[in-house]
């Protein structure tokens, strides 16, 4: 049977429904952390495979892309999205600004606060050195900007021959 650490695949599958419950209900549980990590990795892999297959300017990530993009550009007009500085993103000032941004989408974007992996440098693939844990709405805001402004254009050419979309 497939297993990650001390957690079997059956346990992971049974626990995925738990992830939709409010975070306040949980303590630091290693099995939940493992499930979150797996979901974040799966999301990252699917997204990167799509980037390697489709012109990023054509991607629609949510039904609210226009609102997310506009709000992001209004809130963070000078943020460099091609190479995200994790220290800047998670600084005390950055956290305050991002918290306000994120909460605007609480009742608009499904799973807006889910832990999601973001590539720090948009020219690279996901790796331990090139991944930042963010909220889903931060991921959407930054990736929408990268897609619309051409920062993700080179990904398809650079990685398409090395990637295969899982079926």
UniProtKB/TrEMBL annotation:
Domain called Polysaccharide biosynthesis: residue spans: 32-156
A Pfam family this chain is assigned to: PBDC1
Gene3D superfamilies, per database record: yst0336 like domain (1.10.3560.10)
Entry GO terms, CC: cytoplasm
Gene behind this protein: 105619822
Name by which UniProt lists this protein: Polysaccharide biosynthesis domain-containing protein
Lineage: superkingdom: Eukaryota
Organism: Atta cephalotes
């Amino acid at each position: 049977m497939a297993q990650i650490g001390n957690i079997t695949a059956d346990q992971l599958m049974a626990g995925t429904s738990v992830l939709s419950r409010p975070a306040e209900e949980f303590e630091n549980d290693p099995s939940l952390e493992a499930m979150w990590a797996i979901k974040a990795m799966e999301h990252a892999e699917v997204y990167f495979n799509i980037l390697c297959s489709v012109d990023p300017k054509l991607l629609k990530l949510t039904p609210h892309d226009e609102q997310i993009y506009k709000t992001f550009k209004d809130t963070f007009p000078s943020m460099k999205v091609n190479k995200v500085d994790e220290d800047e993103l998670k600084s005390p000032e950055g956290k305050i600004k991002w918290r306000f941004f994120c909460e605007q989408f609480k009742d608009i974007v499904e799973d807006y606060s889910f832990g999601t992996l973001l590539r720090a440098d948009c020219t690279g693939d996901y790796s331990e050195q090139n991944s930042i844990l963010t909220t889903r709405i931060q991921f959407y805001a930054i990736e929408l900007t990268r897609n619309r402004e051409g920062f993700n254009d080179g990904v398809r050419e650079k990685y398409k021959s090395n990637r295969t979309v899982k079926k």
